[in-house]
Amino acid sequence: MTEEKNEQNPKEGDHVREKEESQSSQEDDQEESKKSPREQKPNNSGNESTQEDEESDIEFLGPAIYQEAETTPSVELKQSDNKKKNKALLELRCRVEDAIVGNYLLGKPNKMISPAESARQREELREISLWGVPLLPSKGHQGTDIVLLKFLRAKDFKVLEAFEMLRRTLKWRKEYRTDEILEEELGSDLENLVFWSSVDKEGHPLCFTVYGPFKERELYKRTFGSKEKRQQFLRWRVQFMEKGIKKLSFKKGGVDSMVHITDLKNSPGPDMKELRSLSSKTLVLLQENYPELIQKNIVINAPLWYYVAHVLRSRLLSQRTKKKFVFARPSNVTKTLLKFVDPEKLPVQYGGLKREQDPEFTPEDKASRRSVKANTTACIEIPVAEGGLTLVWELTVVGWDVSYKEEFVPDDEGSYKILLQNKKRLGQCVRNSFYANEPGKIVITIENWTFKNKRVLYRSKSKLTVPVYRFLFNK
Fold first, then answer.
1. Are 239 and 177 within 8 A, CB to CB?
2. Alpha carbons 378 and 400: distance in angstroms, whole number
3. Contacts by 179-184 with C-beta closer than 8 Å and gap 24+?
4. Ranges of residues in the chain whose predicted pLDDT is under 70
5. 437 within 8 A of 473, measured Cβ to Cβ
6. What is the number of other CB atoms lying within 10 angstroms of the CB of residue 65?
7. GOLD domain: from which residue to which, for each copy (predicted)?
């Protein structure tokens, strides 16, 4: 600063400049002497540091200052945010408690009824529950706070809005008779369109909805041909949601939400207005009456028209609900799903390794991973320790579009190699087995001549096998 002032004011006396430079020099020497030898920096011209040294100091000190400036407020903000959330939960608990005890949770009590009937209604209201969890906070059920927090999160912890949302949900459930819906026979033709399959990496149940069969005109007409049938379809969707809730656990450390995966492969086009309308109604219904029970909405094999429809429909959805959607075009289905689901728990039709009623492998049989770089060949070797073993293996390639070959290579150089399979551009999980009467190895060769790296998922097991001819010979 002293040098800049002197340059800007050349009329000042030289003795003033010399005095200030002398004081600055003495201060620099004192500061430099306090530093360790590593911290001391050589100067190129007397006691003045170069521009490069000054820039070096800025780069070193900058991140440290930034971290100090950012870390402390973020911790304080987090603590403050938690305090606000805890305060909101406590306030909602009090409102729910007062509304239940005061007999006005579902609306104003009828003053024209007898005292005995009023007492009965009060007692009945004290036993009210949602998704199998008592709502009266004073009962001390560990799931009560979990349920109340779902309504608070859906309304950004605005207590009054969360309370009103809870009241509307309870009224809707009473009018819609959701407590009886599990006993009803609905949509027998639709049983294969929606199914549960395993869990994701965090333990959330996976619900798959397949829209492809609706391309069949007869099924579409039977499902959406009249207003009554459309209402029955909507009720069927609610029934399936209630079945999914039975798989959840409303307790500390439990999994209290699910993942919905919607498969639009071969689905009817945008002209199927009944299906589009019901899809929109279903989304709104779930958002308003099942808050925070859907952890993620993954839409796979999504055609272009669906994106357009979703943009229009999203005006009815909250910002929080919009963020739960993940879309995957046909070429990225497996890659997208594997971000959320382990390959051992992802169905084979979606590029995973899971088969229903699998006699060979279980979800506990973990898969190994191998990367095949672009324009390269990779070999996977599965050893056969001894003769008399049957080796079973399965393999899938994310994205496929590769050449694939399997062969058995014996350890004995005098024996012959056996080619088991040689295919190109496979598109689904491969499973094979081989009985080896001598030690060797199964060699799987994958040729990736595309410009993208490929990920290979595979697993194997061996089992001792006695050939059939031995039984015949012994007889």
1. no
2. 14
3. 181/235, 181/238, 181/239, 181/242, 182/239, 182/242, 182/243, 184/235, 184/239
4. 1-77, 187-188, 466-475
5. no
6. 10
7. 365-470
Q: Which two tokens stand for residue 117?
A: 């009937």
pLDDT at 467: 65
Tokens at 430, concatenated: 């491969």
Find the helix or strand (DSSP H, E) in which 308 lies.
helix 304-313
Locate 331 and state its tokens.
């070429």
Tell me which residue has tokens 């999994």.
Answer: 255
Note the pLDDT of residue 208.
Answer: 94
Q: What is the DSSP string of 173-221?
A: HHHHTGGGGGGS---GGGTTTEEEEEE-TTSPEEEEEE-GGGGSHHHHH
Alpha carbon distance 233, 103 (integer Å): 34
- Who's near 405: CB < 8 A, 6+ residues apart? 419, 421, 422, 423, 444, 445
Q: Rounded to an integer, what distance in angstroms lies between the CA atom of residue 208 and that of residue 327?
A: 14
* Helices of type H across 102-141: 115-126
Query: 328-361 in b/e burial notation, b at 16+ Cβ within 10 A?
Result: beeeebbebbbebbbbbbbbbebbbbbeeeeeeb
> Which DSSP string corresponds to 361-375?
--TTSPPEEEEE-TT
Q: What pLDDT shows up at residue 101?
A: 93
| Neighbour-count burial of 398, counting CB atoms closer than 10 A to its CB (0-12 exposed, 13-18 middle, 19+ buried) | buried
> Rounded CA gap, 388 and 431, in Å?
20
Helix (H, G, I), strand (E, B) or coil at 400: coil
From CA 266, how far away is CA 268, in angstroms rounded?
7
For 9-30, letters b (16+ CB in 10 Å) and e give eeeeeeeebeeebeeeeeeeee
- Position 61 scores a pLDDT of 29
Amino acid occupying residue 36: S
* Whole-angstrom distance, CA of residue 379 vs CA of residue 370: 10
pLDDT in the model for residue 62: 29
Residue position matching structure tokens 């306030």: 91
Dihedral angle at the C-alpha atoms of 118, 123, 124, 128, nearest 10 degrees?
130
Residue 224 host element (H or E): helix 217-224
